[in-house]
Records
---
Amino acid sequence: MAESLTIAETAEYLGVNEFSVMTWFGEDALVQDESAPGVRFTRASVEALKEVLANRKSESRTMMRDFGGEY
C-alpha cells in the first residue's frame, strides 16, 4: 500500500463508497496527507479506521447473537 491513498483508493480498500470516505474525513476519522498533491489520506489513519470498522462489525454480530438473531 502506498504511503497515502486517494479517496477512491481508500473507498476500495475499506470496501465502502466514496461518499462514506468523505463523510468520515469530515468527521475527522481520516487524516489528510498534507505533503501529497490533491486529497490523499495517510496510511496510518486509513488503517486505524479499518480497525474501527472491523470492531463495529464484530460488535454488531455479537449483539445479534445475544438477541437470538442469526447474523
---
Amino acid sequence: MSTTRRSIPGTMRTYAPFAGSRPFGQMPKPMFADDGCRCHEAVQASRERIDAAAQGTVRVTGAARTALASCASLDWEGNAANLFRDRLTSLRPPLDAHDDEAATVTRMAVMSP
C-alpha cells in the first residue's frame, strides 16, 4: 500500500511506495553508517571470487599437465609422433605463464586495502 504524506508548504513532498519503506525525497542511507561501510563487504566478496577463480585455474592447468604427461609416454614412433610430442612440449610454457598470472592477481587482490 503506498502512502502520500502531507508536507509543510515550501518543502518537498515525499512518497513511500511500500509500507515501511523510506519515502522518496529523503536523504538516502549514508555510505559510512553506524553499521559499517558496504564497500568492505564488496571488496571481500571480490577477493573471494578472485581467489576461487585462481584456484580453479590451478586445478584446470594441473589436469592439463597430467594429460600432457600421460600423452608424452605413449609408445609411438615416427614423424607424426615427433610432431605430436613437439606440440605437447609447446603447451607447457603457456600453462606455466597462466598459473603465474593467476597467482600474481591473487596476491594483488590480497594486498589491496
---
Amino acid sequence: MTSDNPAANDPAVMDTTVRDTTDTTGTDTTGTDTTGTDTTGTDTTVWFITGCSTGLGRALATAVLDHGHRAVVTARDPEQVADVVAGRGDRALALALDVTDKNQVAEAVKEAESAFGRIDVLVNNAGYGYLAALEEGEDEEVRALFDTNVFGLVDVTRAVLPGMRARRSGHIVNISSLGGLAAFGATGYYHATKFAVEGLSESLAAEVAPLGIKVTIVEPAAFRTNWSGPSMRQSAVTIDDYAETAGARRTGTLATYGRQPGDPVRASEAIIGAVEAAEPPLRLLLGKAAYDIARARLDSLRATFDAWRDVTLGADYPVTTP
C-alpha cells in the first residue's frame, strides 16, 4: 500500500511552466521556405500559445512552426520571442500578452484572428511557481499567483471560445502539472492553482465536447526550464518550525534547477502528437516521474477509499424496501 502522503514520492519540482514563458524558434523542416516565404498555404493549423519567452512555451512554439503550422507566439515582452518568429514569414506572429491584463488578452485574440482568420489550438502555458509553507504565504504574492495561473488561463480561454464555438471545432490545451494531481510541502499555493486548472478543464471538456471542441490537460513532472530557477518566487518569511518539511523541500526544489530530467523539446513533440491524435487524451502525463507518482497516487486513493468503505456508504439515508 502506498502512503496517503505523496511527499514520499516527491520529485522536488512539479512543472514546466514558467512566469512570462515565451517559446518557439527554429528551422522549419516540413517544406516551408525558411527565407520567409510561406509555402504551406492557409490550411495549416493555427496555434495560439501563451508564455513563450522561455521553457516549454518557447520549445512548443518552435516545434509547432517546425511542423509547418502557423503560430501566435506571445510573451509580456514580444522582443523576447523575436528570434522565434524570425524567418517564418507570415506563418508566425509575435504579440505582447500579459494574461493578467483583460484588455490585452482581448486585443491579442482579436489580432490573432484578424491575421490568421481563426485560432485552432489554444495552449494556456503562462504560469510560474511559488515556494512557501501555507503559514508563510504572503497575500499579495498568492493573489498574483492565482491571477496568472488560474484567472489568466480563464480569461484567455473565454476570449478564444466564441470563435471555436462558431466553427464547431478547436482544441484547448491547458498546461497543468503533476502538481495538479498530487501535492507536496512548500508548494501548496502552486498546487492549489493547478488543482483549479484540473477541475476547470474537466468541466470545460464536458461543456464543449458537443460543440466539437476538445480539451487536453498536460501534466508534466520536472522539466529543464526556469521553473525552479529564475522564474520561481518564494516567500520572504520563513518559520523555523517548518525547516524540516517545507524548508527542506524549498531548498531541494531550487537545487534541481538545470538538472531536471524532462526535455522540453520532447515534451513539445508529445503535445503536438496528442493534439493531432484521432482521439486526443483528456490528460497527458509527461515524464517518468509523472507516470510513477500519478500511478502511486491512484493506488493510495484506492486503498484509502476501500479502507473506509463502510463509513462512506453509511453516510446515505438508509434504503427502505417496500
---
Amino acid sequence: MAILTFDDTYTLADFGMANGKGNEMPLLGTITSRTEKVPSRKGLLDFGNEIGSMTDKYPVEVLVQDRIERSLQMRAFKNFITDAYGYPRTIKVHNSDEPDVYILAKLVAAPVPNRRNTSADFTLEITNLDGVKYSLVEANDVLWGSEVVNFQSGLPLGHTGSGANALQITQNTTVAPTIVGTAVFPYLILDGTGTNVVIESNGKKIQVGTFSGKLEIDCANYIAYLNGVEKSIRMDRFQLVRNETIKVTGSAMNFSFTNHYRDEL
C-alpha cells in the first residue's frame, strides 16, 4: 500500500482512510497515433504520436467504523479535493512508491463509496492533465547532503545539476546539464553585460543579442524580461535533452549564467 501525500501536507490517514491494493499508475499518458490512409497504398502513413493525460486509480479504504463519523470524514475529504465552488481542483500528489517525483492532478471521476456496516471503500481516480511526473527538486538543488534526494531517488550518482548556477561567463563557454527524463524547457537568467550573445543546444538557438542588466528567458512561454521589462528576442523551440550541451557564445561577455529546470520523469 502506498502513502499518498497531498499538497505536501495531508495524507489519506488524516481523513481516516488508507490506500488499498491494486493501484493503477500508467507509465505514460494516453498515446494517440496520427496516421493517414492513402488510397491504393498498403498500410498507413505515420505522422507521429501525441501524448495525452495520465490517469491514476487508487483503491481507498475508509477505516472509521462509526457510520456517522465515516460520512463526515468522507465529506471532509470531498471538500479537500474540490474548490470553494465544489469543482475538482489541482492538487500536488506525492506517492511513496515513487519517492522522487510528484504530479499535479485533479479528480476525474466522482468517488462512489461502497458503504458497509463498519467500513467503506471507493476508487480515487485522478488525472495528471499535463502527463508529466516532476522531480521533487529543481536541478540546482541536487546536492550531497540533501534531505530530499537520497538513495531511493532515481537521479544518478554524478548528477551535475543544471551545469550553470550563477556561472560566470567571460568567454565562449560550453555547459553540460544533466537531464534525467524527457526534454525540458529551461528558465535562463543572465545577469551582467554581453554583446551578440547566442545560446545554443541541440541545434536550437536563442539570439540574445546585446544586453546590460538582468535578462530572464522563460523558454516554455517564449518570453524574456530585461530588468523586469518584457523584451522581444528571437528564439527557437528551446529545450534541453539528454546528452546535449549548451553553448554560450558572444563578445564582451561578463555575466553570471543560471540554468533553471526541473526534471520531468
